Amino acid sequence: SMDTIPRFGTETPHEAKLAELMDNIDAWGLNIFDVHNYSQSHSLTSVMYTIFKKRNLIETFRISPQKLINYLVTLESHYLDVPYHCSIHAADVTQAIHVLLLIPSFENTFTDLEILAALFAAAIHDVDHPGVTNQYLINSDNELALMYNDTSVLENHSLAVAFKLLQNEDCDFIENLSDEQRKILRQISIDMVLATDMSKHGAIMQTIQSFHQSLKAKQCKDSNSNSSTNDSLVLTEQKERVQLLREMLHCADLSNPTKHLSIYTQWVDRIMDEFHYQGDRERSAGMPISPMCNRRTADIEMAQIGFIQAIVEPLWQMWAQLVYPHCQQMLDNIDSNRQWYEYQISNRSSRNNTSDKTTSQSHDSKEQDKLKG
Ligand SMILES: COc1ccc(C2=NN(C3CCN(c4ncnc5ccsc45)CC3)C(=O)[C@@H]3CC=CC[C@H]23)cc1OCc1ccccc1C(F)(F)F
Ligand SMILES: [Mg+2]
Ligand SMILES: [Zn+2]
Questions:
Q1: Ligand 1, residues 307, 315, 362: which to mutate, most atoms within 8 A of Cβ?
Q2: What residues act catalytically?
Q3: What burial letters (b/e) apply to 45-63, b meaning 16+ CB within 10 Å?
Q4: Mean pLDDT computed over 241-253
């Protein structure tokens, strides 16, 4: 039939502009909001399709391009229209893990199947997210908390939705994988998505230190043995490779402060919208309002500084150490972004003195209103 697949997976009148943006698919600086706007709101479909083509996964696993597109469009349509946990976040995290997998340290680390599983896990990891936290679902006796016994409720739900969509005959793009390969893909995806539950963050940080030290020890031994000083990490155990992929998806999910300020502030506006809306629902339901979710008392800048200092910087420092010198740009962005928020706070106090009460809304949210059209 004549219906050939569009170059980026979806029809768009802006194909030339999208092609220009997709030239940056391997770069940390890709503007995912522009991709969303020029792909007719199909950033997840176009990013995933472009990465699959670039990595030759369609040939390697004899994927039907049409079934891949069918799955991606259906998956994208099952992301809800919530401010932060929408399909743009999934596209952002998928592109981030694609870039992390390109780091030279991992040149010989992962099998094609593990790369397929990692990209799949990133794409599905928040599908059908309702824009509230696990704690809110538990506190409000939500159906999902009942279904998953209050344990990683959102993460279990996204996995179940994503695999249910695969059972659809014309969406089953992994039909030509062997049973063994399908089992491994499912096993790795479940492991990685469950690890994006922030309640697992402490456990990940506990193990990351000793795990990376053991990897570095092996790496030095290897590079001494062979002539080329290639710094690629070789891991014989699939279990260890999956642990690295689990950390990698968690890093990608916590990568907003590692991006350029103009991108980062858009994510801050979105997460605050989502958390404040949850706070509104908690207030009107007479529930205790979650920390940083009360729009009347929220201190956006302080929340970001706390988030960076307690969570994002420690994790990315561990990661950057493992792949040194390849993630210095991320650390530099975290530092300059934190300083920018500290400056906003110091500036706020002096502004108060001059009784100039402009809100501390990030300068990009006006841009974002324009984007909303
Ligand atoms: C761009 O900005 C953020 C992006 C994602 C998150 C996400 N946050 N979290 C949790 C929320 C509860 N957390 C904490 N609760 C109380 N005190 C502290 C002190 C330091 S963290 C922390 C830990 C992080 C998630 O589970 C989301 C889902 C998965 C991954 C990451 C997501 C948080 C962003 O901004 C910060 C923030 C914004 C709004 C409200 C609170 C926070 C806050 F600072 F609190 F995090
Ligand atoms: Mg999540
Ligand atoms: Zn996420």
A1: 307
A2: 85
A3: bbbbbbbbbebebeeebeb
A4: 98
Contacts made by residues 228-235, CB under 8 angstroms, sequence distance 24+: 230/104, 230/107, 230/108, 231/104, 231/105, 232/104, 232/105, 232/106, 232/107, 232/108, 232/109, 233/105, 233/106, 233/109, 233/322, 234/108, 234/109, 235/109
Q: What is the DSSP string of 210-278?
A: HHHHHHHHHHHHHHHHSSS---------HHHHHHHHHHHHHHHHT-GGGS-HHHHHHHHHHHHHHHHHH
Q: Does the pLDDT at position 39 exceed 50?
A: yes
Q: Is the pLDDT of residue 228 over 80?
A: no
For the chain, the maximum distance between any two Cα atoms, rounded to a whole number of angstroms, is 70
**For atom 10 of ligand 1, which residue has the closest CA?**
198
What letter does residue 182 receive in the DSSP assignment? Answer: H
pTM over 0.90: yes
d(CA 247, CA 212): 11
Percent share of the chain, pLDDT over 70: 90
Residue pLDDT, tens place only, 6-33: 999 999 999 999 999 999 999 999 999 9
**What ipTM did this prediction achieve?**
0.99
* Nearest to 201, CA basis, from 315, 327, 290, 318: 315
